[in-house]
Design a protein that fits this description.
alpha/beta
Length: 344
């Protein structure tokens, strides 16, 4: 298990984490910031000029999960992780990948009133380094107060909140330990095992009366997606699409879905690639749309969007697949793609 202590700089994550080690038997401190420092030493400096934070590196997010899984084979108890995580998509990616490894997460937000945060940052002890370095750290901490405030709505809904404004680190740790014992902060994310080989996946495009396409926002991975999922062993692809739509959205579709696109996705480590099929699920009436479900363990949101809006929301690979699927729907003829490029 991982006890993830979230919160902005000055909320007391690190001091609380050290106190928590005494309260959770067998627990071990796991600091993913060390992975960021390691990547900074190993990757070309130019790569860091392209990003604002090492959390923007896909390699860092994957290493957080892989390292946690490796550590849990070496230590008996939970990992205590004091790490600010304000981007909801990164939270999805990391926590979803941990769920795929069957590693439960207790997400705890250490929240402190902004006036107190500013006081703590202003009076932060200078343990080493020159005054200019410490001024830079304080400035950087203050700059992250606004992103933290922006992230608070989803953080409050996702994590168990411990208000540390008037608590000592020990008192905060005691509240976190009690929350862990009672199961508070458990992340109810669907567990989707990571593929070990090429996969066959079936997606379904659903439309409203304005011909906008339905996209869904999964809790277990970053980015918007089409309804659908991986085809199970021995299952027909179209049947898999119908099953996934029923499970995700509560919509029963006819078995005879029309194929729009068959796309071979090239393997790109650590991904294995495979075949991706998109089917036309037809137009949903207003009455059926009003009955769409939103299972919290799997989907956070759904939205009907225009083609132009979809381009801004989907990763390039999915967007390209959607673009050709819409052309195939217009022409009434399915398209065969290889790595997103039509054949013939």
């Amino acid at each position: 298990m991982i006890v993830w202590l979230n919160g902005t700089f000055g909320a007391g994550k690190t001091t609380t984490a050290h106190e928590l080690l005494d309260l959770l038997p067998g627990s071990t401190l796991y600091d993913p910031e060390l992975l960021g420092s390691g990547l900074r030493l190993m990757l070309p400096a130019k790569r860091f000029e392209e990003i604002d934070d090492y959390q923007d590196l896909p390699a860092w997010r994957r290493m957080v999960v892989d390292t946690a899984a490796a550590l849990l084979t070496e230590v008996p108890g939970p990992l205590v992780t004091p790490m600010t995580l304000l981007c909801q998509e990164y939270r999805d990616e990391i926590f979803g990948a941990l769920a795929a490894r069957r590693i439960p997460v207790r997400h705890v937000l250490l929240h402190t009133e902004e006036t107190i945060l500013r006081e703590r940052i202003a009076h932060r002890e200078e343990t080493s380094g020159d005054a200019e370095t410490h001024a830079s750290i304080r400035r950087w901490s203050l700059e992250h107060l606004t992103p933290y405030a922006d992230a608070l709505p989803w953080l409050r809904g996702d994590a168990h909140v411990v208000d540390t404004t008037r608590l000592t680190p020990r008192q905060a740790a005691e509240q976190v330990a009690e929350a862990v014992r009672t199961g508070a902060g458990a992340c109810d994310i669907v567990q989707t095992p990571e593929p070990t080989a090429e996969t066959l996946a079936a997606g379904v495009l659903l439309f409203d009366d304005q011909d906008r396409v339905l996209l869904v926002d999964p809790t277990y991975k970053a980015g918007w997606e089409f309804p659908g999922g991986v085809v199970e062993r021995g299952e027909a692809p179209a049947q898999a699409g119908v099953r996934e739509v029923a499970e995700e959205l509560g919509i029963e579709l006819p078995r005879a879905l029309r194929l729009l696109v068959l796309d071979w996705e090239a393997p790109k480590p650590p991904g294995f690639g495979g075949l991706r099929l998109l089917y036309d699920g037809g137009t949903l009436t207003g009455d059926r749309i009003s009955k769409l479900l939103l299972p919290g363990a799997e989907l956070r949101d759904w939205r009907f969007v225009t083609e132009a809006e979809a381009e801004k929301m989907l990763p390039p690979v999915r967007w390209n697949r959607l673009r050709w699927a819409l052309r195939a729907r217009e022409r009434g003829c399915p398209l065969h793609l290889e790595a997103g490029v039509p054949l013939g």
